[in-house]
Each structure stands twice: as structure tokens, then as C-alpha cells.
Amino acid sequence: MDDVQVVALEFRLFKFKPAVYDFLIPLTESSFYRLDNDTLSEVEQMVGNSDKHITRVLFCGPYFAASHQYTKEYLQKYPFIQVDDVPFAVVPDVISNYNICIVKNMQLTSNIISRATQMKLIMQFGVGLEGVDIDAATKYGIKVARIPGDATGNAASCAEMAIYLMLGLLRKQNEMQISIKQKRLGEPAGETLLGKTVFIMGFGNIGIDLAKRLRPFGVKIIATKRSWALHSEGSLQSDGFLIENGTNDNLVDEKGSHEDIYKFAGVSDIVVCCLSMNKETAGIVNKSFISSMKKGSLLVNIARGGLLDYDAVVHHLESGHLGGLGIDVAWTEPFDPDDPILKFNNVIISPHVAGVTEHSYRFMSKVVGDVALQLHSGNPLTGIEIVN
């Protein structure tokens, strides 16, 4: 393969350097669900057949690089599937050339979608679709889909990050680094998760996985969600966690609805935001909400930055009412490394990596790859949740 592969996109030329990812863990059939035999048979027959059309997959922007890198690797033996990662500014000019769009964290507006004349499917590399104008996509006959987090390991990865942020705040991670630099031993005195009350705000797939993992820490778990309808019966989940009476609801000591969020915040030591981002939830963690939290309690957000009101968070950090902030998502991304919120020792920020694990990204790359193969062969799309 040449050092530089020149790909003609509409009226421009863009250069993409092929990369070799020797360090990546090989995919195995046992690690993921298998593509159905009919689709696999059809696409295998297409390999090397230059008469077949090309199905083109567009990844928007440079961030979350493993998403397009792993997908390219998974599809490298299928020359009739072309995978490109394109800068944000270029997307509107080239989107008409593509059949599938992986939006990631780009705002896909009605204007941009109207140019996608060959587009069949818009997908999120994960769950959140708040950046996609779904009504516009529906108008232009384009399907919009997410990758369910419970099946891919994305929810589990996010749940683990939530625990990481909790422990980092409780054990005073930033102050420990100061102690190391100053050669002080036995400082700071931290806290345990043991005995704490954790409020999971939004008991969806991530909230469920978080509750499962919190149980062994000896915490009280309270949670809110829209509906507490029972799940299907069964005593053992696919991930090996035992669920009493066949329902995830029994993971929670006290259940509430949206009307209970202030009450629950007032009795919690830690509040974890696991909500979806929409018009109703934007800025839901505002001045009134944080004021209702116990003085010195911790706030963790692994969902979307817009759930938290920035000014309210800063105000309550300055006053000392908020005992600590741990966020994997921010109000603007990438986050400004000079933002004044980082001056607080009780603030931990990670660069939107909660779901970015080898396990989840390998799985989601396979889902994207399989969907591209299914679309190319004309077979039904599996492994995704179509929302329109």
C-alpha cells in the first residue's frame, strides 16, 4: 500500500495516511455476536468483485479516534466498504458521497442532512443522538440509529468510570498528587464508599450497571427514572450478575420519579448523573438542585455536559457547599485546560473517555462494520436501535 492514499471527494482531494495498528487485540468470534450466515455468505462473494458498488461510511471529525480506526481494521478485508474520517468543516461538502454517517460529537443539522443525497443511515457510535436533527433525517428518508449500550459493554465501561470518579473524589486524588510532590506520607485522609448513599439520577442501562457494581461497596442506592415497570423475569443476567426476582429494580433501595430529585439530592452523599440529554433535562442540575444537595456531597456526571449548569457548579464549589465534582463530560468539548474550574483540588475531569475502552469500542466497531455489510448486501440491519 502506498504511503498516501488519495481519495477524490466531490471537487476536492483529501489525503489519508493508512495506519498500521499492530498493537490492537485481534477480534475473535467468541468476543462478539456473529454476523448472520446469509449476510456473511453474500458479502464474502463480493470480495474482489470490482463490478459491485462501493458502500461508503463517513466518520465525522477527528475525536474518539479509536472508533474509525477499529472500524477500518474490522472492514479491511472488504474492499467494497470504504471508511473515511473527515474533518468537521469538510463534512457538509462531502456528505453527499456517503451511504452511512457515524456522527460522533458533530451537530448534524437539517441543512447538512439535506445534502446527504445518498445517505441511508445516520448512526451514533454509542447512545446519545442529541446532535442529530432526527426530524430532518426522517423528512429525507434517512434512518437514524443508536448502538444499545447494554449489549456492547459501553454501559459497563461508563459505570466503571463513574466509580473511578467517585473513588478519586473520596480519596482526594488531586491532593494525593500534591503530597507526592511535597514528599508527605499519610496525607490526605480520604473517605470510603462504604456506608454512603448514592443517588443515581437516570436508571437506564448505565444506571443499572452502576448499581450492580456499587452493591459490593456497601452503599445505599436510591434512583429516579420515568417508569419503574418490571423487566422480564430471570434470575441471572447475561453478564453474570444475580438479580433478585428477575428485575433490575431490586438493585435499588428507594425508587423515585422526576418529582423526587430534590428530595433524593438532599439525603445523598453522592449524586451521579446518568440522564439522557434532551430539552427536558438540559441544565437540570442547576442552582436550585445543587442547593438542595447535602453540604459537602459529591457530584459526578458521566452522561452529557449540558445536564449541569456551569455557573451553578462553580458558585457552589467556591462557597464550599459542593464537596467535589467528577465529570467525564464538559460544557464545551474539548474542555479548556485553562478553565478556572480546574483550580479547585476537589475537581476531577476526564476527557470524555467513560465509554472508550477496548472492550466497548471493539464491539461497537463490529456493530458498525456489520451494519455496513448488511446495508451493502441489502439484508436487514441488526445490532442497532432505529429511532425513526
UniProtKB/TrEMBL annotation:
<dbReference type="InterPro" id="IPR006139">
    <property type="entry name" value="D-isomer_2_OHA_DH_cat_dom"/>
</dbReference>
<protein>
    <submittedName>
        <fullName>Glyoxylate reductase/hydroxypyruvate reductase isoform X4</fullName>
    </submittedName>
</protein>
<dbReference type="Pfam" id="PF00389">
    <property type="entry name" value="2-Hacid_dh"/>
</dbReference>
<keyword id="KW-0560">Oxidoreductase</keyword>
<dbReference type="InterPro" id="IPR029753">
    <property type="entry name" value="D-isomer_DH_CS"/>
</dbReference>
<dbReference type="Pfam" id="PF02826">
    <property type="entry name" value="2-Hacid_dh_C"/>
</dbReference>
<dbReference type="GO" id="GO:0051287">
    <property type="term" value="F:NAD binding"/>
</dbReference>
<comment type="similarity">
    <text>Belongs to the D-isomer specific 2-hydroxyacid dehydrogenase family.</text>
</comment>
<feature type="domain" description="D-isomer specific 2-hydroxyacid dehydrogenase catalytic">
    <location>
        <begin position="68"/>
        <end position="370"/>
    </location>
</feature>
<dbReference type="InterPro" id="IPR006140">
    <property type="entry name" value="D-isomer_DH_NAD-bd"/>
</dbReference>
<feature type="domain" description="D-isomer specific 2-hydroxyacid dehydrogenase NAD-binding">
    <location>
        <begin position="164"/>
        <end position="354"/>
    </location>
</feature>
<dbReference type="GO" id="GO:0004617">
    <property type="term" value="F:phosphoglycerate dehydrogenase activity"/>
</dbReference>
<dbReference type="InterPro" id="IPR036291">
    <property type="entry name" value="NAD(P)-bd_dom_sf"/>
</dbReference>
